[in-house]
Amino acid sequence: MSTAASSRPASGGASASGGRTTKSAKRAAGEQEGLVRSVPKAKVRRARLLVTKIDPWSALKLGFLLSVALGIITVVGVIALWSLMDMAGIFNQINDVLGTVLGAESGNYTVQSIAPLGTVVSLATIVAVLNVIVLTLLSAVMAIIYNLSAGLVGGLGLTLTDD
């Protein structure tokens, strides 16, 4: 090795004498650290809230909308179920079993003649309308009951966080 190479500081910023870093090496390292700073983590904010009152009119409106959606799902589901059962031949199998069990007394009665699709859909619509009325009124009554009980126990405690 030549003497010129041994008198130069090492590439890690340490000098040949004792492995200490020089001021210029510290300054250069500080400037590099200044270019790429880690973002400080924000504190998670928390808010503790109490639900002490539910407006019965708001509960009535929301209950009405949700029960109408449930009514539509009920009618569409009944139509889909009846059609699926008809295409799968389940009604024909039920007719065969009834013919075997009842014999000649079964006559011309079939599932499709007793409960055609129109009758089933009408019944499902009536049930859906009754569900809309009952669930709408029940949502308002439940809001009033909640308001009364929240007056006694203070309400429902919630903790909201900001993630």
From TrEMBL:
Transmembrane among keywords: yes
TM regions (residue ranges): 62-85, 120-146
Keyword Protein transport: no
Ranges of biased composition (kind: Low complexity): 1-22
Domain DUF3566: 45-162
Record's keyword terms, sorted: Membrane, Transmembrane, Transmembrane helix
Region feature (Disordered): 1-34
Protein name: Putative membrane protein
Organism: Micrococcus cohnii
